[in-house]
Amino acid sequence: MLNFIYLIIFILVLLIISFLVFLSVFHLKIYFNNRKYQALKEKWQPVLFGYLNNEISLNEATASFNKNYKYTWKFIRTYLDNLDGKDFEKLKNLLQASGFIQYYLKKLRTGSNKDKLKAALILGKVRHKKALPYLEEMLKSDSSLKIKTAGQAISQIGETSLVYEIIKAFLVRTEITYEGISQILILYGQKICPKLLLIIEDWLDGEVDIRKEFQTSPYETIALFVELLGHNKYKGALPVLERLLKEVDNDELIIQIFKALSRIKEPVDLDLTPFINHDNWVVRSQTVRYLYKNWESSYSEQLKARISDENWWVSFYSGMALYHNSFKAFLEEVAVSDKPGSEISNYILEAGGQFEHF
Amino acid sequence: MSDKNKEILVVEDDELIRGLQKNKLEKAGYEVDEAQNGLEAWNKIKDNRYILILIDIFLPKMDGFQLLKNIRSQEIPAKTIVLSSKSQDKYIKKAFDLGADSYLTKPFDPANLIKTVRTTLES
């Protein structure tokens, strides 16, 4: 019995020692990796700055960066994220000359799944066009993570010929939310807008069946496109947004259109009366908010009426639009009256029309 | 050299980017001091006379907005340029409301950074 207890104790001690050895080795590995990286960083930083400032040639800079691409990536990714213009291009040239880009291009082609994901992430950040055929292939995968990573990399590279394929892959074969898709497609910048307009126009003309193609609600999909047009403040979207307002009767989409119009800041050539008086208060408030940001004097009487709207936001944006467009006296008049808009008029007048978040 | 002579203060929590900004500004002929968080920056601002402060919005300990508020409430006579990522452009208005003189988005072109510093100092 005693021997058995000793045996158990011995095994337990052995397990604890093994665990401690494993932990120590793990920490030592991290420590030495960090030390190595710090040493490389100290060496590379002046070389990189000298190269970016044209004091060191490409050949000299390349010679300093060794073939340990894991450390190169750790060092360079912050610069790739934060630099633009000539310095970004120089950085790309350096990565090309040092073999870094070719190394990850090979990983993207022939590496393991993990390697491919990392390579896609890196080549997207470097905006390397030669990665596109492999990223397009990756987009056809069944793995949500692969599709997302490939879509993100293509968006960063800015290849607009694949916009349709990315949207389709995201909507049909992943669980990414509309917000998530928007965050990725934003990486395209304004470049994506003409493509989105084409899809919207095709949908309006009945040439694309979004429900069938993307297996999702057409209104939500078009609302996503409208949000991106607004985010990019794309003035060229105006005629299509006007057409949508004329031809589509969907509250969520109308709301998104007025949000986009508020950002684009261009006057719409359309009678806004039905939207100012819409049954849905969110439609009313977003229309009035648009008029606050894009004043049109022809609506002043309607806005005066909306200051007594039953909804606080509609009333607030009507008041703000009037206050900032030479109708302060009207608010002062309402403020001292017993009319429904007196409370909001007082609120706006007291703040001098200045509210941080509106 | 005493800190009293520093011209530009770079406030950025990322060491690599702070180093790059400092290097680019020094190459353009400015004397540059640096701080890695808002609190360190505020302590330096109280003790030194900078002509310009380059502020990242998201900083540890004290964010860029609070730093701007402090600078303006204490009437520190330094110009300020705020730096933030493109996706956070909604903060531009807030930065200007708090008294920022100029704004730059990340990713940034260092040539544009120098140009903005020059025009801000001339304005």
Descriptive terms for the model:
heterodimer; A: 358 residues; mainly alpha; 72% helix; B: 123 residues; alpha/beta; Rossmann fold; five-stranded parallel beta sheet; 5 helices; 43% helix; Stage 0 sporulation protein A homolog (chain B); phosphoprotein (chain B); CheY-like_superfamily (chain B); Sig_transdc_resp-reg_receiver (chain B)
Describe the structure.
The complex is a heterodimer of chains A (358) and B (123). In chain A, helix 6 packs parallel to helix 8 (144-157) and helix 20 crosses helix 21 (342-350). The relative contact order of chain A is 0.04. Chain A has helices spanning 2-52, 58-64, 69-82, 85-97, 100-110, 113-126, 132-139, 144-157, 163-173, 178-185, 193-204, 210-214, 218-231, 238-247, 251-264, 273-276, 281-293, 300-306, 312-323, 328-335, 342-350. Helix content of chain A is 72%, strand content 0%. The mean pLDDT of chain A is 91. Chain B is of the alpha/beta class and 123 residues long. In chain B, 43% of the residues lie in helices and 20% in strands. In chain B, helix 3 links the parallel strand 3 and strand 4 (79-85). Classes of the chains: A mainly alpha (358), B alpha/beta (123). Chain A binds chain B through residues 45, 49, 52-53, 75, 78-79, 81-88, 186, 356, and chain B through 14, 16-17, 19-20, 23-24, 27, 87, 94, 97, 106-112. Chain B: InterPro entries: Bact_response_regulator, CheY-like_superfamily, Sig_transdc_resp-reg_receiver. Chain B: Keywords: Phosphoprotein. Chain B: This is Stage 0 sporulation protein A homolog.
List the helices and strands and how they pair.
The complex is a heterodimer of chains A (358) and B (123).
Chain A: H1 2-52, H2 58-64, H3 69-82, H4 85-97, H5 100-110, H6 113-126, H7 132-139, H8 144-157, H9 163-173, H10 178-185, H11 193-204, H12 210-214, H13 218-231, H14 238-247, H15 251-264, H16 273-276, H17 281-293, H18 300-306, H19 312-323, H20 328-335, H21 342-350
Chain B: E1 8-11, H1 15-27, E2 32-35, H2 38-47, E3 52-56, H3 64-73, E4 79-85, H4 91-97, E5 102-106, H5 110-122
Helix pairs in contact in B: 2-3
